[in-house]
Task: structure prediction
Amino acid sequence: MTHSSAPPHVGRATMADIFGEDDLETVPPDVAAGIPHAATRTFLVEVGLPDQADTQGWFHRVLDLSEEVGDRGPDQWISLGEIPYDCVDVDASTGVVHATPADGGEPYPLNSGLGAFAYLLCVAEAELPFYSGTAEQTLADGTVRAQVEARLERLYGMPREQMGPTPEARLRAAIERVDPLALARPDSTWQMVLRYVTEGMD
Result:
């Protein structure tokens, strides 16, 4: 299914809406000053990344993002965290996000940039009520369901039904629309996420 409308910009407000303001870590401007890729530098300073390790979410951020940034040179990769259990890094000079398989395989491009990576994290998290083990119980509350529906419509820029009939179909459509690079490998981290979404999470 092809969708022509572009997804909303992923700024601080969007990330805070999905993950909570207190869970986003940013990098001080002076620490990030050495990052040559402007969009990556801006994202880390102004938007930030969540840590979902305590909530059993997808992204587990490094313990100290500012330290990781400060310890890397301008042409090096910055460690961001992991999507269990693949390591996620961003190239400070190009902005490309890479994943390194947990089994020790060679790293590969995962996303074209932090904006695309963050957007897909938002979608995977916002869709969680539809594929978690407690989906039926959670969505039985009309108020909660309305909030979930509204959040997804903001992310997709359209009602969720227009993106696809299932959480897996919608996430796949979002990936194909925003950053097809994420699915270029049959064993990529995002392919793994899609498999879990399809099977459901307890």
Remarks:
- The longest helix spans residues 142-156.
